Amino acid sequence: MNERILELLKNKNYKELRNELIELNEVNIADIIEEVDTSEAVILFRLLPKDMAVDVFSYLSNEQQMNIINSITDKEIEHIMNELYFDDMIDFIEEMPAYVVKKILKNTKEDERALINQFLNYPDNSAGSLMTIEYVDLRKDMTVAEAIKHIKETGIEKETIYTCYVIDGSRKLEGIISLRKLVTCDEDKKIEDIMNTDVIYVHTHDDQEMVASLFKKYDLIAIPVLDKEERLVGIITIDDIVDVIEQENTEDFQKMAGMEPTDIEYLDASVFTLAKNRIAWLLILMISATFTGRIIQRYEEVLQSVAILAAFIPMLMDTGGNAGSQSSTLVIRGLALEEIKTKDFFKVVFKEFKVSFIVGIVLSIVNFLRIYFIEKINFKVSLTVTITLFITIMLAKIVGGVLPIIARKFKLDPAIMASPLITTIVDAVALIVYFTCATIILGI
Amino acid sequence: MNERILELLKNKNYKELRNELIELNEVNIADIIEEVDTSEAVILFRLLPKDMAVDVFSYLSNEQQMNIINSITDKEIEHIMNELYFDDMIDFIEEMPAYVVKKILKNTKEDERALINQFLNYPDNSAGSLMTIEYVDLRKDMTVAEAIKHIKETGIEKETIYTCYVIDGSRKLEGIISLRKLVTCDEDKKIEDIMNTDVIYVHTHDDQEMVASLFKKYDLIAIPVLDKEERLVGIITIDDIVDVIEQENTEDFQKMAGMEPTDIEYLDASVFTLAKNRIAWLLILMISATFTGRIIQRYEEVLQSVAILAAFIPMLMDTGGNAGSQSSTLVIRGLALEEIKTKDFFKVVFKEFKVSFIVGIVLSIVNFLRIYFIEKINFKVSLTVTITLFITIMLAKIVGGVLPIIARKFKLDPAIMASPLITTIVDAVALIVYFTCATIILGI
């Protein structure tokens, strides 16, 4: 399909091209526009029927959006801005450089401009920054028939009509009603008698993570957003929440690998930003790890007298780190999904105690068999390594399971208690256990 | 609110209790039932009006569902099974032990039993295992008015009525139409003329991750599921996809921490399962790490002659591992969200080259200042450690950025190229670089 489009574009067969384009899904057209070069992109975009062009525009990358805005007339810009859903417009404006924003604002009406400025001021990652203003509002004294007529007349421009919002004269939210209920109810029933007054809602400054967890908990497809005076100012729809969920997960992945979280895509992020996000934690962990080095320094004579001991340091440190990271990852994820609460502290401790016992036994046996029988290491050294391995795994898993819960208890983000930090802590623990065992068993 | 419910329950004031309960959201009632003990849970459940009881049931944990099924009459079971959405019923049956399943199947009609068996046979994580059969089907020769009448009559029992499916006599999917379009269109228009024929759909055996990415790409709220003969057999709705997205993310977190993925919640998983999921990777990594140990063994004389070198091994290994994990995490996540493609290989290499250069310089300088001026380590040793640190960071970040893409290229899961494996690889690299630098600079 795409080859056909590209061929028609090359041959400047624009009439045929337009016919092919309008048969496609807007998302796929956007994909094609992303692939061609700048001038061709503008040609393709301008071939689209006006309404379709707006939808396609909302699916383009910021880079391509800017390219198009720079190439079309003020009148075309005005049309796009009028037809874009408000939340898509805000997302777009937020990413544009100042001169583009100026050009856009010039082409919007004064009252809308005020509204845009208000939306641009909502904090990043707040409910306000996610919401749209295109929703259906009803009055409680309407009948079902009147409500449906109202939806028929105004619904086309709304982002969703499947949940309608019942408000009073001062825009205070009184209830919600689904289109499903309206369609399946008697036409002469009053909205007031059938609306749902037990509404789940959020405020403009609530954090997006909290909003997403309400969607998950109550299986919502939209949620109303109220201002400080409890007036309805917008709604958030599920498609934006899906993006929020992925964004929050990405941030957790980044934090758990010891980075400052960012919502800029990897390939779009500047080298400087990427470096900056990574350096802080690397520095902290590097300096912490030198303390681990001190432990080795302190036991220098032990290493000098039984040099083979040094050869097992990487294995003990790595296995301890891995064992601890496994536990901390499960607990951090459980906390994020609210499957584990801080009150489950002792449940986690006991669980990790039992799991680490099994894991410790299995790994220790395999290790002993390997180094004593295959690598022919002296019995006492083999024993020292094996006992250290067992104790390290037990401690690593318990520490790894417990630290994220403690972090949550102290209102810290549990995600910092992930692999990098756990590894650093466990390394130190492993070495202390190792040298203590060595001095006892080998009698050094 | 919950305190009031618990007090009424204790005082056996059931009439008042029922009045309080019916004012609550079903999700919140389910939360309360989870908190009280077994016999109280059954009392609360039985106080609920029949329809509400079914909704509440679908939000309960498997444990509490089983407890209730074991305590109510066959007739009550029959009612719940009839009223549950089909996908919720399948999810529930899949988690129950055999004797409960038997009890349930005894209470369902024969044709439904056949359907249940068919659904239970869809592979885990397939579209078939997610879909529900409660959707609205229309014929293309209906008018809008007829379609709305049909929805009015049958819509109450459907999981969603917001997207309707147009099928022919043999149930082949001919198009879809949204309720929004039906409500905002002229009543005498034919469905055929206004339906959307460019339908995004999946097949029963497609993987849930692919289904979720279609929802994200096209901002869907439902998707039709076809069988091998292209007949419509069910639909998947967005609420189930939100769960799939979280489940896929959880699996990625688990794989990236070196564990077998599982969708059982941490607190529900048995100790044996948890241990089993963790041991395989720990064993592989433990044995790999012993090869790292061999490197130390080979350079025993170097360590013997300059014993202080051993003290920096943990810092070099840890920093290298952390630097590599940062890069691999970003790239693995980028691949999962389809922000990075395999064709971006060289873009990633160049980016990591530049980022690691900056990061390497900063860390090396800090490290040199610290160990030479503060720890007063001999200049040549300080230089050896610093140069090793720089080279290790460069290599770690490039290896970390590149391995996930290579894995994807070879159709392996990029998530295995995460922290544990990268750490093991980078440890070996770091030690080889370290001892090579040491022999050159210190002239050992």
TrEMBL record, chains A, B:
<feature type="transmembrane region" description="Helical">
    <location>
        <begin position="355"/>
        <end position="373"/>
    </location>
</feature>
<feature type="transmembrane region" description="Helical">
    <location>
        <begin position="385"/>
        <end position="406"/>
    </location>
</feature>
<dbReference type="InterPro" id="IPR006669">
    <property type="entry name" value="MgtE_transporter"/>
</dbReference>
<dbReference type="Pfam" id="PF00571">
    <property type="entry name" value="CBS"/>
</dbReference>
<keyword id="KW-1003">Cell membrane</keyword>
<comment type="similarity">
    <text>Belongs to the SLC41A transporter family.</text>
</comment>
<keyword id="KW-0813">Transport</keyword>
<feature type="transmembrane region" description="Helical">
    <location>
        <begin position="418"/>
        <end position="442"/>
    </location>
</feature>
<dbReference type="GO" id="GO:0015095">
    <property type="term" value="F:magnesium ion transmembrane transporter activity"/>
</dbReference>
<keyword id="KW-1133">Transmembrane helix</keyword>
<dbReference type="Pfam" id="PF01769">
    <property type="entry name" value="MgtE"/>
</dbReference>
<dbReference type="InterPro" id="IPR038076">
    <property type="entry name" value="MgtE_N_sf"/>
</dbReference>
<keyword id="KW-0472">Membrane</keyword>
<dbReference type="GO" id="GO:0046872">
    <property type="term" value="F:metal ion binding"/>
</dbReference>
<keyword id="KW-0479">Metal-binding</keyword>
<comment type="function">
    <text>Acts as a magnesium transporter.</text>
</comment>
<dbReference type="InterPro" id="IPR006668">
    <property type="entry name" value="Mg_transptr_MgtE_intracell_dom"/>
</dbReference>
<keyword id="KW-0812">Transmembrane</keyword>
<dbReference type="InterPro" id="IPR046342">
    <property type="entry name" value="CBS_dom_sf"/>
</dbReference>
<dbReference type="InterPro" id="IPR036739">
    <property type="entry name" value="SLC41_membr_dom_sf"/>
</dbReference>
<dbReference type="Pfam" id="PF03448">
    <property type="entry name" value="MgtE_N"/>
</dbReference>
<keyword id="KW-0460">Magnesium</keyword>
<dbReference type="GO" id="GO:0005886">
    <property type="term" value="C:plasma membrane"/>
</dbReference>
<keyword id="KW-0129">CBS domain</keyword>
<protein>
    <recommendedName>
        <fullName>Magnesium transporter MgtE</fullName>
    </recommendedName>
</protein>
<feature type="domain" description="CBS">
    <location>
        <begin position="195"/>
        <end position="251"/>
    </location>
</feature>
<comment type="subunit">
    <text>Homodimer.</text>
</comment>
<dbReference type="InterPro" id="IPR006667">
    <property type="entry name" value="SLC41_membr_dom"/>
</dbReference>
<dbReference type="InterPro" id="IPR000644">
    <property type="entry name" value="CBS_dom"/>
</dbReference>
